[in-house]
């Protein structure tokens, strides 16, 4: 029989003659009880994963466990039945576990599971008042406190010195733990583990002992408390005052240093910004531009604005100030320091050619003085992308007026459309022939024809324009423009002439007649070119079918024929067959003069007929806001002018 099975216990027989003996035995059992449950097993410091952590309300920490592989060895095996935690001994006795502590190395058990009286079933040894089975092999010792058995336990029957040499079988796994030799009275039990001072938790698992925040616990420190890893400091009032004074001094010093750093940083940034702006000014050919616009008269001086002024005018280029996005940049609404409302175009700079186009636009606009060309106030060259400052045009574009609400009646009457075409043609004719140097716009389209507060036409966006010397008839360039408006011959040859603008203007005339976009979706759901659609309708004699119903209603057939004839001439594929812009301007002037003369004659003959054919305020006027009603009448939108007034206007205002 081996040491585990060997029971060296004297039998104390319970008989009627041994009443006195049983009394003393029961008294001893009330205080101390020891049972050997297991011996000789190795300690396993690493439990398997996903072990049950509790049984009912009681937490079961390692080295104890409920399943195979979850406890360190067999003596730490507990059972969980119907949320009741039980501990079994080698004699077959089972106790309910009511509390378990790895920090104190104790278990508390009560009431045998089978209900028998353990005082009558367990055989014991006694030595110096303690109850045990074999002090050399067992590590569980009992003491009785009222109805509860308090069990003190050890990990293994080894000293700490020997246990530390076991390596992988050493039980104290946490970094902040230490080994403690355990005795029960005078009897050596073995060793167990405990968290170091300032730490708490489970020392039997890796990182099980964690720092205690003593400052968050009551009765630790009534003064100023400062926690640190593994401990805390409790400062007295004197140290507190010293700390406050030190902190105040450090804080004040930090503020002074911070203020100095901020001031220095601002100055450094300001200096850096000045240097960067100077570099941009040079990169954007600022010196060259200054020389090119320096000969302007004082009354038409093109200003060079600072970036700071334009940032202030646009609230740092706030997105809410965006008026629109063009082919050559984004346009913002701004208010200058002199309260002028302006439009500021921020160019798109991708390549050097874009910068050249910007300089080109400034030079061209600085030379132009015409009532139907948008006025350039100045520019800014201190940013990475150059900025242009124009007069603000408040009523949008011709494209918006024609196409934004195609389902409703157009805001523009027939008289409005003829006048707008005439004003735009006059501006382009001026660029081609009356300016100091001939200028080709190269991007004529309805979205580049703006309407000011009086609905006067303003031609804009000269970023793609080209100027020619007087002895040049054309220039070869990279093809630029907008599909639907692009001159087919210019597209195929790259040769830019004034006739390229004439073709694009012809497309605008078709838009005014039909209210269709240059590229539109036809009845079959396919995309179609407007100029081709118009020419085919003209050739098939179905021109009235493709007209805007409002035009058919307000214009007489003779006027429609005249406009269609002029439009067809502008849209001819060969540029030599097209009229010049000056000829287009003259034909439109003749058409409008004839209409106004007829309007005057009819008014004299029959006032009712005259009002019908040429009302003082067009039907569109009723749809415009009341604030503009007076301006529309005074400026002559759909009004009946006398021939003398029209001719006087043509003479006095530059074309």
From TrEMBL:
Keyword Transferase annotated: yes
Membrane topology: Single-pass type I membrane protein
Location, primary (coarse class): membrane
UniProt cross-references to InterPro entries, sorted A to Z: EGF_Ca-bd_CS, Kinase-like_dom_sf, Prot_kinase_dom, Protein_kinase_ATP_BS, Ser/Thr_kinase_AS, WAK-like, WAK_GUB
Any one Gene Ontology molecular-function term assigned to this protein's record: protein serine/threonine kinase activity
Cited Pfam families: GUB_WAK_bind (PF13947), Pkinase (PF00069)
GO CC entries: plasma membrane
Subcellular location(s) per record: Membrane
Keywords of this entry: ATP-binding, Disulfide bond, Glycoprotein, Kinase, Membrane, Nucleotide-binding, Serine/threonine-protein kinase, Signal, Transferase, Transmembrane, Transmembrane helix
Keyword Membrane attributed: yes
Transmembrane intervals: 21-38, 240-265
Domain Protein kinase: 317-591
Biological process terms in GO annotation: cell surface receptor signaling pathway
Residues where ATP binds: 346
Protein name as annotated: Protein kinase domain-containing protein
Species whose genome carries this gene: Triticum urartu (Red wild einkorn)
Phylogenetic placement of the source organism: Eukaryota, Viridiplantae, Streptophyta, Embryophyta, Tracheophyta
């Amino acid at each position: 029989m081996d040491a585990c099975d060997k029971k060296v216990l004297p039998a104390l027989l319970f008989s009627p003659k041994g009443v006195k003996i049983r009394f003393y035995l029961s008294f001893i059992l009330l205080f101390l009880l020891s049972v050997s449950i297991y011996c000789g097993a190795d300690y396993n410091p690493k439990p398997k994963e996903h072990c049950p952590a509790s049984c009912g309300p009681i937490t079961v920490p390692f080295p104890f466990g409920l399943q195979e592989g979850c406890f360190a060895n067999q003596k730490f095996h507990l059972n969980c039945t119907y949320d009741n935690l039980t501990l079994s001994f080698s004699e077959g006795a089972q106790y309910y576990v009511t509390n378990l502590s790895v920090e104190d190395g104790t278990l508390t058990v009560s009431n045998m599971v089978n209900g028998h009286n353990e005082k009558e079933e367990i055989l014991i040894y006694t030595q110096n008042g303690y109850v045990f089975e074999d002090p050399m092999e067992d590590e569980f010792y009992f003491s009785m406190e009222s109805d509860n058995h308090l069990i003190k336990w050890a990990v293994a029957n080894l000293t700490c010195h020997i246990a530390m040499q076991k390596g992988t079988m050493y039980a104290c796994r946490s970094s902040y733990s230490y080994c403690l030799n355990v005795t029960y009275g005078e009897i050596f039990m073995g060793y167990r583990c405990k968290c170091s001072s300032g730490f708490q938790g489970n020392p039997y698992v890796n990182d099980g002992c964690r720092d205690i925040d003593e400052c968050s616990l009551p009765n630790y420190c009534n003064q100023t408390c400062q926690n640190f890893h593994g401990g805390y400091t409790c400062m007295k009032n004197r140290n507190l005052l010293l700390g406050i004074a030190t902190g105040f001094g450090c804080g004040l010093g930090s503020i002074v240093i911070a203020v100095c750093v901020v001031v220095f940083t601002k100055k450094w940034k300001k200096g850096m910004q000045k240097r960067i702006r100077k570099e941009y000014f040079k990169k954007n050919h600022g010196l060259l531009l200054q020389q090119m616009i320096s000969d302007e008269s004082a009354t038409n001086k093109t200003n060079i604005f600072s970036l700071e002024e334009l940032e202030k005018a646009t609230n740092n280029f706030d997105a809410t100030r965006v008026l629109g996005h063009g082919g050559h940049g984004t346009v913002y609404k701004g208010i200058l320091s002199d309260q002028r409302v302006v439009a500021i175009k921020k160019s798109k700079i991708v390549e050097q050619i874009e910068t050249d186009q910007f300089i080109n636009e400034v030079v061209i606009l600085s030379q132009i003085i015409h009532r139907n060309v948008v006025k350039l106030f100045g520019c800014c060259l201190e940013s990475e992308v150059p900025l242009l400052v124009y007069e603000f045009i408040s009523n949008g574009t011709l494209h918006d007026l024609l196409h934004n609400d195609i389902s409703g009646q157009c805001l523009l009457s027939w008289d409005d459309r003829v006048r707008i075409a005439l004003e735009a043609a006059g501006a382009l004719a001026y660029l081609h022939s009356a300016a100091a140097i001939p200028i080709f716009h190269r991007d004529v389209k309805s979205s580049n024809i703006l309407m000011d507060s009086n609905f006067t036409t303003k031609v804009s966006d000269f970023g793609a324009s080209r100027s020619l010397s007087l002895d040049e008839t054309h220039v070869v360039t990279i093809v630029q423009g907008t599909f639907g408006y692009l001159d087919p011959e210019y597209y195929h040859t790259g040769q830019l002439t004034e006739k390229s603008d004439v073709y694009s203007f012809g497309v605008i005339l078709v838009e005014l007649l039909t209210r269709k976009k240059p590229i539109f979706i036809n009845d079959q759901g396919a995309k179609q070119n407007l100029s081709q659609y118009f020419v085919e309708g003209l050739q098939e004699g179905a021109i009235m079918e493709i007209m805007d119903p409002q035009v058919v209603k307000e214009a007489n057939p003779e006027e429609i024929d005249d406009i269609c004839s002029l439009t067809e001439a502008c849209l001819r594929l060969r540029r030599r067959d097209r009229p010049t812009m000056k000829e287009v301007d003259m034909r439109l002037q003749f058409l409008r003069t004839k209409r106004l003369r007829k309007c005057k004659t009819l008014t004299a003959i029959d006032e009712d007929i005259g009002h019908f054919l040429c009302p003082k305020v067009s039907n569109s006027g009723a749809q415009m806001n009341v604030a503009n009603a007076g301006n529309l009448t005074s400026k002559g939108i759909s009004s009946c002018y006398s021939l003398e007034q029209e001719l006087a206007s043509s003479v006095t205002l530059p074309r």
